[in-house]
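Final report, closing paragraph on structural work. Over the funding period we assembled a curated collection of sequence-structure pairs, and we close with a single example.
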Amino acid sequence: MVTPRSITLNSLGLMAVSGANPQLINLCVDSREAREGTLFAAMPGSRVHGASFIEGALQRGASAILTDPVGAELARDVLAASGAALVVTDTPRETLARTAALFFGAQPQVMVAVTGTNGKTSVSTFVRQIWIELGLSAINLGTTGVEGAWTAPLAHTTPEPITLHRTLAAAASRGITHAAMEASSHGLDQRRLDGVVLRAAGFTNFTQDHLDYHHSFDAYFDAKAGLFARVLPEDGTAVINIDDERGVDMAAIAKARGQQVMTVGRAGGDLHLAGQRMDATGQDIRLVYQGKVFQARLNLIGDFQADNVALAAGLVIACGAEPSHVFDTLPHLVTVRGRMQLAASRENGAAVFVDYAHTPDAIETALSAMRPHVMGRLIAIVGAGGDRDAGKRPLMGAAAAANADVVIVTDDNPRSEDPATIRAAVLGGCPDAMEVGDRAEAILRGVDMLEPGDALLIAGKGHETGQIVGDDVLPFDDAEQASLAVAALEGRLT
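Its predicted structure, as stored:
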């Protein structure tokens, strides 16, 4: 646990427009956590302004309120009747992030962040694994929580600033010296990473996702570009995949800031993935860095994993590690849970994989990457989440149809939407696919189809352990369900 601090409002660089200079022992964005000595941050939201909860925070004893001019006006009367310090700023999210960084006061000495549509979790996990293989105390933070030398749950890929900096301070207090984190477009857009001191930052790729939030490709790209345009300091190193056409744009943004740029790619780059040979259990890769050739074994399925590993290696090198030592660690890397994970195998040798692929590009990438490892048919189970970018649903179906021999369309976190409507949209891109709404039944049918040499990819949920239906989260684990299906079909259930 991080020892609670006691620090004045002014010592955090905050000046109240009214009220005193209180001693603070806590920060919160949830009014229910407010108490005496708390600064409550009332942030603007997409549906409701946090100012709606200022009265409740004050009733619980909050000593200070941070908000924007709109919030101050909305809560004018309750603020006027209180003695709480009021801080008003036009940039409340950035101010909160930097305040949280100062309040908690510590983070691991060496930090990197990774952004991009796909691959963030794998790259940050591989960075952590490489560091640990080099004898360093390291963690990664993101979709799968905090993993590595210290573990802890996280509710979001990029947590809100108070949770993020509390977590980083807790890690530092436990002797963690190195940390790799995922930088989501939401987190960057909402300034959650402002205040994190980065040594290096990485860019994987850019494809369609989250347009329900960002509304346009340009807005989505600008959010991700914030990692280099704003968060990574000028003396940091940007490690960029230039095989992606937007990687060139991202490198230009980094260079304009004066950052050192390390390019990574198959077509060339400072770290060049020059060769790749696939086999049934993994792949051998050839890397060229600073004129020297390195060959390494990757016990990872999927040609795209070589790109993720190369980017991870580049980030570790950018943070000062000896390149030859970094490349020596690569045979020890293991896949991330839910990322091209071998979940089960049939007695006939057919394999079942689970992957988090939930965008058209990710589905295409996962299936095409599996193809060289599969002698028989490639079967895919796909679905699309409810209350998320609806435009990608037929594209996901089309990607599955174009790259798999058999496609089954099923449910994947329908949330508040009608599952049948979502499935129909996905089927619009793969009209010849089989429709099986119940996800457990879909997995059972897919496993039952497997013949010698075949492989099944269950796409979408990856590491997740729940199916979101309405407001309920029902227990559901794709890997566990695949194992159960194999056991049931082969008479091994007890």
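The chain is about 35% helix and 20% strand. The radius of gyration is 24 Å. We thank the funder for supporting this effort.
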